[in-house]
């Protein structure tokens, strides 16, 4: 009880300093809990949606995906004959069966040719209005579609794009463009997570999406009373056999949920990883806080020991304070995490993903995990200061001698840190010189871990050296005030090292990712310059195929010397060694592709691969299967017949664009794949006539005005797009890393605040002999700046080393240009100095307000 009372008293007595440490715990726990609540809520929302929209049993073509995704390389959804509906209705236990048609391989535009797609990248779905949809949608205005000139849209899409009844829209599919007017608006009875949905009548949907009637994409089956979904499925399979995919509502929901989980897990674990970094940074803050609090209570600890308190009791007293800090910070963090999750849901709402707070899901494991992590991390971080407090002897403490200096432990720490850093450096060197990316990535991970730990351990030694250098460069110009700031930073190298290390971690990751991102852009730009010979590339940004109508529009564009088509086909290969290789992709293109994309070969000429009944293979495949020029490969096309193709070229594995591709001409492929099964183009390459590049570029954009889903890019556009995509990814990562940097700034603030208290008497004496308030504030600000710059130097140097090593691994994949983004590195370095200035504002202000006589009288 005495230990608890002492701990409570000390906790309350230092509540201001504890609050800063509690904020670090709060932020970290909030990030963990917010991530878990947000992803759990997403799961709940989609669970309800999948359950509400699934029929008891669903029948679809065997080639259809488990999730209902209808994107195919022909641009049309896989279908089954209408006769299947009659067969299903005859199965035992069937109450009703209804055929439907829908597709996600569509683009819908308004009268001005603007796309009516969700802003969150969600699907655009066009389908037939049916009884299953009537269960989950409520018509709020107008009527359901009743003819070819009518379409009904969902309320969210109507609101988003300002559509009303009578407005004209165009539905662009592989079949053509269908125009209709809005006949009605329907609202979701469940949460719409962000899809845009358009309904046609069944016959019009068949003609628009497939190009013919008498077919459906799915059959929705409802069970009779007392018949389970599993029993119904068995009965339907008994009637249809194994020619079709038959799934219960749960199987459909599970398949959709599995696909969703792959996306959510990436986001979830990435955010938890950044929360872990924030926890790591927070450990330094807590260690520093308790170390300084223990040092400031040396005499008090001595009195406790003198009146009979044991080492264990003193140790326990400090740990109880840490426990209180962990509990308070974690409880507040759990609450803040729920608020963060709600904020993320509102943010998703701005991106057209509607998530209702009615579905807010807080599993009991979320606060339990948050409390466990927060308390455990805080107590573990406080263990070393607590152990140090227990070692203070009563007599030494009463003399205010503090904890005994342990020169030996400092020397051991320095040696250990240097060894770890050296081992990490060797690991990074091994990664950089690895011949395989998989092997090198393991060494890279080990090197990052060892160098990070090594720099943290050797921090006090580095602080002593670097702070002196920084003092000579930055502080001496400020005269005596600068020299005092330097001595203050050097007074306790262990403290300075720990404070700088907290900032180092976040900045090291920023520098590493900046180097990797910049090198990827530079490498890809270099490859484009060396490889791509075409002037323009036309593609659909979501990976959809290009319709025949759009291809014709491109080919009719004036000012073009040539247009090259490019298709992808799935095939099973039988190689000369007798082995069968399933699920390979054949890249079929016009012969001009050999000029549009200059691919290096190790044998033969790529242009020869476009001769009749010829192909190319890549170097690794050739070595694995003993293929040489002139070898024959048997190719069985998934949607066609079997061909025997002669290998005329072997491409280099060093290629970046189309690495690992196997080429053949479209003319060759067309001999074995029926025209109605021939895939549409994935890409188009266009080359302008000499001197007509600019007019042709504008003409292409005008020609594709009717098809806004396709983008025309010249090489400059392509490079900028790549730069923007990587830049957006890095900005998002930097935003998440900002959490760790915020915690590091709190550490600097806390260290300075406690340092000011520790030096109260000293500050009073300096003020008494003439140091002005302005000079005092400047001294503390300079001390803060030098600590921040010290951390930045360590972090940026370490991060650039990591990034350069990672680039060497990327070079094995063809990205062989190392580019150091000096503007970013310089900006981060300068920003670190401002971070130091900002962190010193409150401590400097409080120090300057001290009463001189009271400060001198402080014991």
Overview of the molecule:
The protein is of the alpha+beta class and 859 residues long. The chain has 5 domains: 1-54 and 251-404, no CATH class; 63-242, no CATH class; 411-457; 459-534 and 715-859, no CATH class; 545-708, no CATH class. The chain is 58% helix and 16% strand. It has 28 helices and 24 strands. Strands 15, 16, 17, 18, 19, 20, 21, 22, 23 and 24 form a 10-stranded mixed β-sheet that branches. Strands 4, 5, 6, 7, 8, 9, 10 and 11 form an 8-stranded mixed β-sheet that branches. Helix 1 (2-13) crosses helix 10, helix 2 (15-53) packs antiparallel against helix 11 and helix 15 (459-475) packs antiparallel against helix 16.
Task: List descriptors.
859 residues; alpha+beta; 5 domains; eight-stranded mixed β-sheet; 28 helices; membrane; transmembrane; MacB_PCD; Membrane protein
């Amino acid at each position: 009880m005495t230990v608890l009372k002492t701990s409570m008293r000390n906790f309350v007595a230092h509540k201001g300093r504890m609050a800063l440490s509690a904020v670090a715990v709060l932020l970290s726990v909030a990030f963990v809990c917010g991530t878990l609540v947000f992803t759990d809520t997403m799961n709940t929302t989609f669970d309800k949606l999948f359950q509400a929209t699934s029929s008891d049993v669903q029948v679809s073509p065997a080639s259809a995906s488990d999730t209902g995704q209808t994107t195919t390389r022909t641009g049309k959804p896989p279908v089954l004959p209408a006769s299947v509906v009659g067969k299903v209705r005859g199965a035992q236990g069937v109450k009703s069966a209804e055929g439907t048609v829908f597709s996600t391989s569509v683009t819908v535009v308004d009268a001005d040719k603007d796309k009516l797609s969700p802003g969150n990248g969600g699907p655009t779905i066009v389908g037939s209005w049916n009884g299953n949809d009537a269960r989950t949608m409520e018509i709020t205005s107008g009527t359901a579609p009743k003819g070819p000139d009518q379409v009904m849209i969902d309320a969210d899409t109507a609101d988003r794009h300002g559509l009303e009844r009578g407005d004209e829209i165009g539905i662009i599919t592989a079949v053509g463009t269908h125009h209709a007017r809005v006949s009605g608006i329907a609202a979701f009875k469940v949460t719409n997570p962000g899809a845009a949905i358009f309904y046609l009548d069944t016959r019009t949907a068949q003609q628009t999406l497939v190009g013919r009637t008498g077919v459906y994409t799915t059959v929705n089956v409802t069970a009779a009373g007392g018949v389970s979904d599993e029993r119904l499925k068995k009965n339907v399979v008994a009637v249809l056999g194994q020619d079709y995919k038959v799934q219960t509502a749960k199987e459909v929901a599970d398949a959709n949920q599995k696909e969703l989980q792959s996306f959510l897990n990436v986001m979830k674990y990435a955010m938890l990883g950044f929360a872990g970094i924030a926890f790591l940074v927070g450990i330094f803050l807590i260690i520093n806080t308790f170390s300084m609090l223990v040092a400031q209570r040396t005499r008090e600890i001595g009195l406790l020991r003198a009146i009979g308190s044991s080492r264990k009791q003193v140790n326990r007293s400090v740990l109880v304070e840490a426990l209180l800090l962990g509990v308070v910070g974690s409880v507040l963090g759990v609450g803040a995490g729920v608020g963060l999750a709600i904020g993320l849901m509102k943010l998703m709402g701005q991106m057209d993903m509607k998530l209702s707070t009615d579905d807010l899901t807080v599993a009991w494991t979320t606060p339990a995990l948050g409390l466990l992590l927060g308390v455990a991390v805080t107590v573990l971080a406080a263990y070393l200061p607590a152990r140090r407090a227990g070692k203070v002897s009563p007599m030494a403490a009463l003399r205010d001698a503090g904890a005994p200096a342990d020169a030996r432990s400092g020397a051991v720490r320095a040696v250990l840190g240097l060894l770890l850093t050296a081992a990490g450096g060797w690991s990074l060197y091994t990664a950089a010189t690895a011949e395989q990316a998989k092997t090198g990535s393991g060494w890279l991970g080990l090197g990052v871990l060892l160098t990070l730990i090594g720099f943290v351990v050797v921090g006090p030694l580095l602080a002593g050296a670097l702070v002196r250098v920084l003092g000579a460069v930055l502080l001496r110009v400020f005269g005596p005030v600068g020299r005092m700031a330097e001595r203050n930073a050097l007074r306790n190298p262990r403290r300075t090292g720990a404070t700088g290390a907290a900032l180092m971690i976040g900045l090291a990751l920023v520098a590493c990712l900046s180097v990797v991102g910049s090198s990827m852009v530079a490498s890809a730009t270099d490859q484009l310059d060396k490889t791509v010979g075409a002037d323009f590339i036309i593609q659909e940004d979501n990976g959809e195929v290009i319709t025949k109508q759009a291809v014709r529009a491109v080919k009719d564009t004036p000012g073009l010397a040539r247009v090259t088509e490019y298709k992808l086909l799935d095939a099973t290969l039988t190689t000369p060694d007798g082995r069968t290789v399933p699920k390979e992709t054949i890249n079929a293109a016009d012969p001009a592709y050999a000029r549009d994309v200059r691919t290096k070969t190790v044998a033969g000429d790529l242009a020869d691969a476009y001769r009749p009944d010829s192909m190319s293979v890549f170097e690794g495949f050739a070595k694995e299967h003993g293929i040489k020029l002139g070898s024959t490969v048997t190719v069985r096309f998934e949607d066609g017949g079997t061909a025997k193709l002669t290998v005329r070229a072997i491409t280099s594995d060093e290629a970046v664009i189309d690495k690992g591709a196997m080429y053949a001409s479209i003319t060759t492929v067309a001999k074995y794949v029926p025209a109605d099964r021939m895939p549409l183009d994935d890409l188009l390459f266009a080359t302008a006539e000499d001197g007509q590049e600019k007019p042709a570029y504008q003409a292409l954009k005008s020609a594709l005005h009717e098809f806004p889903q396709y983008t025309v890019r010249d090489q400059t556009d392509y490079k900028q797009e790549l730069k923007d995509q990587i830049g957006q990814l890095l900005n998002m990562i930097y935003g998440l890393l900002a959490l760790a940097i915020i915690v590091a700034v709190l550490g600097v603030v806390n260290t300075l605040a406690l340092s000011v208290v520790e030096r109260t008497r000293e500050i009073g004496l300096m003020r008494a002999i003439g140091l002005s308030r302005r000079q005092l504030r400047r001294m503390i600000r300079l001390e803060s700046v030098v600590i921040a710059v010290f951390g930045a130097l360590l972090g940026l140097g370490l991060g650039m080393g990591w990034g350069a090593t990672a680039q060497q691994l990327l070079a094995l994949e063809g990205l062989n240009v190392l580019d150091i983004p000096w503007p970013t590195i310089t900006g981060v370095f300068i920003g670190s100095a401002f971070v130091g200035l900002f962190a010193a504002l409150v401590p400097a202000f409080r120090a300057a307000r001290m009463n001189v006589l009271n400060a001198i009288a402080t014991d």
